[in-house]
Amino acid sequence: MSRKRSRHRSSAKPIAGMLAGILKPVVRKRGLAGADLVMAWRDIAGPQFADCTMPERIAWPKTTAFDDRNGAAPGTLIVRCAGPAAVLLQHDLPQLVERINSFLGWYAVERIKIVQGTVHAADRKPVPGLPELPPQKQAEVRAQVSGVRDDRLREALATLGTSVAANAAASRRRC
Known about the structure:
Largest sheet: 3 strands, mixed
Low-confidence stretches: none
Number of helices: 7
Distance between the termini: 47 Å
CATH class of the largest domain: Alpha Beta
CATH architecture of the largest domain: 2-Layer Sandwich
Number of domains: 2
Order of helices and strands: HHHEEHHEHH
Radius of gyration: 22 Å
Helix content: 40-55%
Shape: globular
Mean pLDDT: 76
């Protein structure tokens, strides 16, 4: 004899999915293509501009013109920049536009408008430091990625592997 359950059990839901729903109205209000752009700004802007710039919003065109590549017209990213760094940023705008579109995965930004202003420390999230990994473990990680031909990819994988190994070692010490 089999019993039927009258109750339906709910499964656990990932926090990332819930956060996306909570952040979506805030991000949409600011005109950004996603919260990922703000969170990854340090990597997108690079070390030269990470501390002196911050994306404000994307101004989407009011016309209904469409781009040939993906159907949506690209917007203008408004970036707040501290003081004299704006001149240096102006010089590197084409590369920054390329990095932003590459990160977003579509032609979302056509140009960048620089607005001079203060970039507060509260706007920048500190990058957490990793515990030091012993040289032997670093050599093991390097050996694991040595077969990768592309230099940039090999270096990125080595950095990722070192971070994972350092975090694993740190979590073992805490327990």
